[in-house]
Hints:
- This protein has two helices and 13 strands; from the N terminus they run E-E-H-E-E-E-E-E-E-E-E-E-H-E-E.
- The chain is mainly beta.
- Among the domains are: 31-60; 79-239, Sortase (Sortase, Chain: A, Beta Barrel).
- The model is unreliable at 247-256 and 260-271 (pLDDT under 50).
Amino acid sequence: MTGKVRRPGGAREPxxxxxxxxxxxxxxxxxxxxxxxxxxxxxxxxxxxxxxxxAVVGRTIPPPHVDPAPHVLTPVGVPSAVPxxxxxxxxxxPVRLVIPAIGVSTRLxxxxxxxxxxxxxxxxxxxxxxFIGSPRPGAIGSSIIAGHIDSTLGPGVFFRLRDxxxxxxxxxxxxxxxxxxxxxxxxxxxxxxxxxxxxxxxxVPDAELRLITCGGLFDYATGSxxxxxxxxxxxxxxxxxxxxxxxTRAGLGHPRPARSGRPRFxxxxxxxxxx
Length: 275
């Protein structure tokens, strides 16, 4: 709009038209479009990275060929009653674990804690280990036995641990050749970042057994599984000293094969449970 400016003395002078090109820009407005573009680009990049990471961690690996579980003999002996839990007695150290239902017959090594306070794991996938900080199998408390699920060479000693069912038996042979007999009461899988330490390692009023291995998805970034498989078992009796069964040759077949679709991944010597 054009107006007139009154001069001194009453005369008017045409007002100058202000050109839009000479207007001073509002502070920060020139930054609006670049900032908006940068924020949108960052959002798209974050979504892409998240999708790529999930695709790497959760991708499905074709299952390898796995031979049937080896046939192992069930320990035999003279049955005896469960000991009185109020009695204080010395239990011999465990030397062997036998689980006929999943073809396991392994010697037991001794496991302690790492420098960061997590459970050690066996240096080989072919044997399991008893945690020396837990009660001996058959004594009051939760006895802990751990083993690997697999390695680049094939299935580990606890490859079929997740396939165990309620009611099945696990036999722990001790140094005095007596055998503690345990019955499975539950099989659970826990994410390592939500591992129920108190429930697994905590005190219990009777003699119990915990069998632990890795499971779930494999994280290539950390080189380990994201979960743990825990088998809970309770003492139901014991066998008097007798012959310790040895595993027969592998490949004789088994009435209940392992579940299909189990991937084989490289194993790492990290703690089975990270708290």
